[in-house]
Amino acid sequence: MWKTIRIDSNNNTIKSENYKDEYLGLGGRSLIAQFLIDEVNPTCDPLGEDAKIIFCTGMFAGSGLVCANRLSVGAKSPLTNGIKESNVGGSAAGALAGHNIRAIVIEDIPEGDAAMKIVLIQSNGTISLEDASPYQGMNNYEFVENMQNNYGEKVSVISIGRAGERLYKNSSLQVTEFGTNYPCRAAGRGGLGSVLGSKRIKGIVIQKSNKKNTLEFANQEQFKKIKKELNQSVIESSKTSPFSLVGTASTIDLVGPAGIIPTHNFTGDISENIENLKSDKFLEFVNKNGKNQHPCQAGCLVKCSNIINDADGNFLTGGFEYETIALCGPNCDIYDYEAIAKMDRICDDIGLDTIETGASVALCMEAGLIPWGDAQAALALYQQISDGTDLGNLLGQGTGEVGRHFNSKRIPTCKNQAMPGYDPRGSLGTGYTYATTSMGADHTAGITLGPDDPTDIEGAVATSNLMQHIFAMADSMTCMMAMATLGGQLDKVAELYNAMYDGNLNPDDLFAAADKTLLLEREFNEKAGWKPEDNVIPEFFRNEALPSTGKRFDIPVKLLSMKVKQ
Amino acid sequence: MIVFNNKAFDFVENTTIAQFIELMKDQLIIENTALLITVNNQLISPSAIYTKIIYDGDIIKTRYLPMGG
Ligand code: SF4
């Protein structure tokens, strides 16, 4: 019933394949790992002919389970040179599920300077490659507007902007958001926009299927019953969840005063201006012209997203998240929501990872290129990326490259990927995740943050290992916000799985599946040339104490390079 | 006796960690069952709570699953 769509970008062929039996029950990140290990040579050039980019829906996409319409994008990352899975909400996964599409695999690269193409999936299920040359050089908002004009207002679009077209290593893929239909949701990490760009594909446009939902269930009645219970539990927990009541920006209330939010290129200096970014100020800002509690995808009951309008009431951005705020804001000494929201918009438009870009701009400030805290000067740098100036091209290569260019001694990366919004000295277990995960410095690989975040090495390592499994499980099923409730009901999640896939899983089996995903990812990276000794945290986190706690990152190097006990 | 988040509760025989957590939720001691749980300082996987039994004298601590965006 599920299909895999295989597109050869060199020969312009499209094949619809029956879904492999052995892939049944995989979804999202677990399916990406399996596809990549089965089909991609780990030593390949991430932007070359042997590389593939794969789009997979989560294992419960289209089923009505809360937050299950999540899209995973996977490829060998040109930034980390390892496996990458970056997942995103928005309307695309639901639209693909409506067509019974579980995966799209795009292979090969066209020869020479071929015109770009659009993958068009029409309501009747027809799939074609359309000429995208009129849209080449366009950024995401304009491109999506054109697609809506051509193919209908309600189309779902996955696309790249100029950053992806120029093969920038910090380029994102943008996805249209449920409700607004603006391309403000990002599969941001790992530079995967450039992998699609290398295949000369500008975007994937999906019209809503005109067929009735034909998902198959082993036991539909049972599925419905458990789904209802699980969804209800998420509704209940959302009533008090700060992610629901405020959004992910609520994290600032904890990490701001604690000095865990990155500031001034990860020095951790706490500014009194952090008060400008706390939850009350966020709500004031969002609700002035827009709104919070917006669902990014159909079926979301948590609603951690938002709509930000400009002073004239026009849509500015959406999905304005903690990570963007942290890296583009305080990490650059910028404490002004209006300015940071503009940065978010421009990143989404060009198709840039806000984490990588914010960290790179901070390095420009450290190098004295622009003054610390100067939002206008920072915005001018973002514009340079869009314009493709020499400096813009450098910034497009990611934080590692920018830091090396300026001879910085303080480059906040792991495996060449910028750290997200938690200083590893302030969250030891999260730092352990950054150093050891197959994803490079990535908060979605398993954070340990929160009250009672272990400060002892043993506790931090154990918590990180556990969270790496939980996030691997979440990334295969739902967005992680839903997992914050479903994670306490793995017995029911296993039953749900069995009712859909005719399985016989118990909670331990779900964990074992997450373990397998992590092992496949590690296998890919080992074959790609990653070595245990590459598992490092930049030295300055060991040499400089975090001002708020006096703590340095003190997990021994040897412990980071040991094989992680899965 | 079971010490749960620094408060003492009666020990109930033949009870899994998951059942005990559910009891705590019913008594409004906790709001959500998605937790990182330590029993006697040992971190327990959320998948193991359905089979592991509590013992008299256990010290159980919980924290919400860390999530972020
Ligand atoms: S909780 Fe947030 S990220 Fe998850 S589906 Fe809802 S809006 Fe999207």
Automatic annotation (TrEMBL), chain A:
PANTHER family tied to this protein: ALDEHYDE FERREDOXIN OXIDOREDUCTASE, TUNGSTEN-CONTAINING ALDEHYDE FERREDOXIN OXIDOREDUCTASE
Entry annotated with the keyword Transport: no
UniProt keyword annotation of Iron-sulfur present: yes
InterPro entries per record: Ald_Fedxn_OxRdtase_dom2 (IPR013984), Ald_Fedxn_OxRdtase_dom3 (IPR013985), Ald_Fedxn_OxRdtase_N (IPR013983), Ald_Fedxn_OxRdtase_N_sf (IPR036503), OxRdtase_Ald_Fedxn_C (IPR001203), Tungsten_al_ferr_oxy-like_C (IPR036021), W-dependent_AOR (IPR051919)
Organism expressing this protein natively: Acetobacterium bakii
Residues covered by the Aldehyde ferredoxin oxidoreductase N-terminal domain: 1-210
Descriptive protein name: Aldehyde ferredoxin oxidoreductase N-terminal domain-containing protein
Family the entry assigns: Belongs to the AOR/FOR family.
Keywords attached to this entry: 4Fe-4S, Iron, Iron-sulfur, Metal-binding, Oxidoreductase
Gene Ontology molecular function: any one: 4 iron, 4 sulfur cluster binding
Cofactor: tungstopterin; [4Fe-4S] cluster
Automatic annotation (TrEMBL), chain B:
SUPFAM superfamilies linked to this entry: MoaD/ThiS
Superkingdom per UniProt: Bacteria
Gene3D superfamilies with a match to the protein in the record: 3.10.20.30
Protein name: Thiamine biosynthesis protein ThiS
